[in-house]
Amino acid sequence: MAGPLEGIRVLEFTQIIAGPFGCQHLADMGAEVIKVEPPEGEPWRLFSQFMPGESKTYQSLNRGKKSLVLKLQDPRAREVVHRLVPQMDVVVINYRPDVPAKLGIDYETLSALKSDLIYVDNTAWGRKGPWANRPGYDIIAQAVSGLMAAEGKLEPSGAPGVITSTAIADYTTGVAIAWGVSAALFHRERTGQGQLIETNLLRTAIAVQGTQAMELPAADGMKQMKVARIQQLREQGASYPELLDGSQLGNIARVANIAYRTYRTSDGAIAIGALSPSLWAKVRAAIPTDFMGMEDPEFDLMNPAFVEKAKAAVARVEQQFTEKTTQEWVEIMERHGVPAGPVNFVEDAVADPQAVENEIMVELDHPLSGPQRQVGPLISMSNSPLAAQGPSPVLGADTEAIVASAGYSAEEIASMREAGVIA
Hints:
13 strands, single chain, 6-stranded parallel β-sheet, Rossmann fold, 3-stranded antiparallel β-sheet, alpha/beta, 20 helices
């Protein structure tokens, strides 16, 4: 199947989520993606296996690729890579920062073999700074970047609550990888130049908190108060729950919010999203309520009397929502022109007519595990349509053909296979 990146060849040295997800986007765009794996397979193959060498997590992140098994610690395997690189357009890697040079697959080495090579170096923390050589995973990026604390969740033990719905730093970095490669290919088309692209989990985890991370003295009075409060608590030796409580100072406006939030209904929950004065008026008419929220002339979150009044009004609105079903509220909000929708589980979402009609899911057939439905390409394009290029590869399924394409004879391939260099 064709796509906007038809004819582009990618050599992928990645594992877990960020790199595989980014390279899967490239495969969906029509690129030929060759995933290099160790003899046992990348770790995500082994995570919650439902059959030997196959896991649902691996299959969801590696569709449309080819599998090349190389024992990169062996010099003969590195020679295979070096003979393949001149045929490639892109190399993507997410090993710990000190590993690529040891394996002879760093940017300096590979770009010397192909001057217009596009090379993506994905790390946890970036190539500079005291953490440059540290390994890292999504959970640590959540913690270090502020994402975890911003969620405001606590475990019963008092430890911070982890964002478990998705590996947000990993997945956003995967999108950044595909975006960066596409831009670099366009640059190369115009100039003939290859280049090094650097992505890292810390950068994207902070980037998705743009407004909160931004510093704007003219508008940051509440933020400065919060920072000062947290510093004071730290100096007093406060516990994490106490620090988290202090950090909620900037979120006190939630006590007056009825227009951009979720509500429990009689049979589930609904989310409404109104972010303009005209929509706020429609929300009040739909509920109905005369509570003005942030438009109240007496709005003053530093005034205990107003805060108590707001809390009572919000509680009355919350009670109103429990008196009707989710579907009834969705219909009411639609009649009044208020953006709203049910709070679904993902199993509900992918079966919803809205997802079905927009072909968000795709049907694939894996040679070992059979039929499956996956989330399809992230975007649609009218003149160069994206498409899932097939299921994830069986470990090593393409090794012999790929190695042969690098000029190795059948005897050389057999010798390397017998020595465990390839598989």
